Amino acid sequence: MPANCAIDFYPSSFSSRGPQLMGLNAANEGFLDGFVRHARVDGLFAHTRSGEEFAAFGNIVGAARGAGFPISRIAPGDNAALGRVGALLHPFPGFGPLAWNRRFGDSRAYSLLGITHTTATHAVMDSIGNLLVAPIEPWDAVVCTSTAVRGTYERVLDHWQDYLASRLGASRLPRPELPIIPLGVDTARFADGAAAAAARTRLRERLGIGVDDVVVLWMGRFNHAAKAHPIPACLVLEGLARQVPARIVHLQAGWFADAGMENGFKEAAQTLAPSVRQIYVDGREPDVRRDVWAAADIFMSLSDNLQETFGLTPIEAMAAGLPVVVSDWDGYRDTVRDGIDGFRIATTMPAAGAGEDLALGYSSGALPYGAYCGVTSQMVSVDLQRCVEALVALARDAGLRRRMGDAGRQRARELFDWRCVIDQYQELCGTLAQIRARGESAAPRQPGRPACALRGDPFEVFAAYPSRTLAAGSRLDIADAAAAGRIGVLHEQDLNRFSAPWRLSAEDMRAIVRTIAARPGVTVDELGHGLDQRQRLALVRTLAWLLKMGVLVISAPD
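Above: the chain's sequence. Below: its structure in token form.
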């Protein structure tokens, strides 16, 4: 049976239903659906923070594999349960905090996996750096969805490693595995053959698109600063319209963040592409996202933004049998074969050294994230002449469109269908398990030191606060004869109930009080004789609570 992994499940991060649909949501939703449907496992595991989250996970599994398919919940901190599964997949790249949690148990028990999305935010950049200082092990992995994003990770890690070596003299800085596994699509949901032809006729009639019109499709957010600037697209479509007799339609399925952005996009289209008919549909609607592909002849995405790392829409277009025209940028370079599935159009940006002031502005907060992405994208250009040539070739030749569309559909089915992608994840989990079996920990816990260096035992970290400590040699007495009778009332008080899981039961407390009453001055160590480590911890906390509630007193400190 291929290796399994538990899913670190956050409902909002695995859903594309919302007013501000982001690529991360669509990618995570697709991954989870693909894993639930295609993972070759006997059961599924969700690492959740609440029963409500687990119920949401169960609904997803039930819809995909039936209500009877086995699912199990793993609570945060349950390292033993995660060890039985063997891996925990976090839907983001920054799993440093999870590595610290793992260190409270056996770091060899299971692997941690993260998935890259955008890399440009402060939070993600910091999480990349954290990979070198958190207790990441050789059997952990950050799955990079493209060659480009792995290049970014390697550069940032190199810069951070150089700094740590200079600042601290650090020479041993292990890194996680950085395998490349693409995002995927459910190729079966894209209409083909007669179904696609029927959908094409229906949609084009509803949108008022003529039989001979050439429709160029965009799918995604409308955001010139964080997705793709619309002006290059306007310029090349106007160039296309002036060279072919057919009417050119720009069908745009997306959503605007605000009215100002909407006005800017539409004004640019009217001014710079007056010969092109512009149609806007709401790309957040599930029916639109599913069916709009059938109405198009060509898909075009001239991404120019640092926020992009993979680019899901070109492989969706390929799965729908559309030829694609994309910028030669980030993950598009891995997915689209130039001259086979469509055309990749060359991009240019300044060489290293031209953005030091942008880095300072972004680091200091003078340049917010949106502006940082927007300003840098203003310096990224696409070869517009070559793009027009590619569009003209496709617009004039229905046979070329068909051949490229067929090639892209086959490529999507063979490489980017979730069934194929999930196989790669399971293979990766198996490989990491082999590394765990033979590897040595890069950050073994030292005796007497906390598992998490910045989250140590509070009674050790704050040991300077109290007058004295409840130690092994502390001698205990009953406060008064009525003390045992108050335990039940004290235990059930609303103000105390929240801490009940961290101490012994009321029945156990009464037994402790009876023991102390029979042996005044008994020590903490004597009360804990024969108990294992977990039981001793619970006993000490319970004794401390009984002291707080006035049931016990210390007759003699250690």
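The radius of gyration is 30 Å.
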